[in-house]
């Protein structure tokens, strides 16, 4: 193995056609990801006059902002855990269960669509279903049960969490399905030959093998929920003080207007979601070794 050489040899081997092919992706990443992120980082340390300051970052520790981060983390963690548990159960049923084969293709197709269904349409769908005059709410009233008098409120922590589950569960199914497919049938047959029950197989073989994938998917689901704003804003408005809505209020400037603080809020969100995605990538890489 030759040591040294040109460290940019990979790039010098690229043909003109290859460069032209990847140029749109590079331009897109620069314009809509790298440059805006760099602008947020710079803006987080500037005052309205453009001078360097740490005040914006220090303001993240104020009670209102700290509470908004805490609520966002709670919603993200709760929707991620519930979405992972329900999605795992559904994925196991359609892949390892004895359901008709056509159900798997139907569920996977629906999951691909539902995992991308968010924002104003999703909020309207839940308001029309579980709002105070929603279809399910009215039907339950006819049945003698008042959903809202029992304590439920769609414009609350649990209401937003349930709404997030609509796209969290399908995303979990899509991500965990390949890992479940990677469980070799020979493992189950060998366990059964040695006298292990189905429960013992999952306790000592199945779940330990899937565990890294589950942890990685939890991180991804957390990041997915933590950065969502359109669904939360369309559903709850400003009644639930989560970080994306507070950030929107700071930048929009109807009442609050502090672009520097908004940039600091965005920087805090970037750090949290980046950590969650790094955890996902690291765990995912290690999990792939188990499934080879």
From TrEMBL:
Membership in a protein family? Belongs to the binding-protein-dependent transport system permease family. CysTW subfamily.
Residue ranges annotated for the ABC transmembrane type-1 domain, each copy included: 69-280
Record has Oxidoreductase as a keyword: no
Tell me what organism the protein belongs to. Answer: Devosia insulae DS-56
User: Which GO CC terms are listed, alphabetically?
Assistant: plasma membrane
Under which name does UniProt file this protein?
Acriflavin resistance protein
Where is the protein localized? Answer: Cell membrane
Q: Which InterPro entries match?
A: MetI-like, MetI-like_sf
The record's section on PROSITE patterns has: ABC_TM1
* Membrane topology label: Multi-pass membrane protein
Transmembrane stretches, by residue range?
21-45, 65-95, 107-135, 155-180, 201-222, 228-249, 261-283
Q: Name one GO biological process term.
A: transmembrane transport
Predominant localisation class? membrane
What residue range is the signal peptide? none
Name the UniProt key words of this record, in alphabetical order. Cell membrane, Membrane, Transmembrane, Transmembrane helix, Transport
Respond yes or no to whether keyword Cytoplasm is given for this record.
no
UniProt cross-references to Pfam families, sorted A to Z = BPD_transp_1
């Amino acid at each position: 193995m030759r040591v040294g050489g040109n460290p940019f040899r990979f790039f010098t081997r690229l043909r003109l056609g290859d460069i032209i092919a990847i140029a749109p992706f590079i331009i897109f990443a620069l314009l809509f990801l790298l440059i805006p992120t760099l602008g947020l980082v710079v803006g987080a340390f500037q005052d309205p006059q453009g001078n360097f300051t740490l005040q914006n970052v220090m303001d993240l520790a104020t009670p209102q902002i700290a509470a908004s981060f805490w609520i966002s983390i709670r919603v993200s963690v709760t929707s991620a855990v519930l979405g992972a548990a329900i999605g795992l159960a559904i994925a196991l049923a359609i892949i390892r269960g004895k359901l008709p084969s056509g159900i798997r293709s139907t569920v996977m197709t629906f999951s691909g669509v539902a995992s991308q269904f968010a924002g104003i349409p999703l909020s309207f769908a839940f308001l029309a279903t579980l709002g105070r005059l929603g279809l399910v709410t009215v039907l339950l009233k006819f049945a003698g049960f008042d959903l809202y008098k029992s304590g439920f409120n769609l414009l609350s922590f649990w209401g937003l969490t349930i709404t997030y589950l609509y796209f969290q569960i399908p995303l979990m199914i899509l991500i965990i399905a390949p890992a479940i497919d990677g469980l070799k049938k020979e493992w189950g047959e060998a366990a059964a030959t040695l006298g292990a029950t189905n429960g013992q197989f999952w306790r000592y073989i199945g779940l330990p093998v899937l565990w890294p994938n589950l942890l990685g998917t939890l991180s991804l689901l957390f990041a997915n929920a933590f950065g969502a704003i359109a669904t939360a804003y369309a559903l709850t408005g400003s009644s639930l003080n989560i970080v994306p809505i507070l950030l929107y209020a700071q930048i929009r400037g109807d009442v609050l207007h502090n672009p520097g603080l908004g940039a600091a809020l965005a920087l805090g969100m970037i750090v949290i979601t980046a950590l969650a995605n790094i955890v996902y990538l690291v765990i995912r890489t290690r999990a792939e070794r188990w499934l080879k």
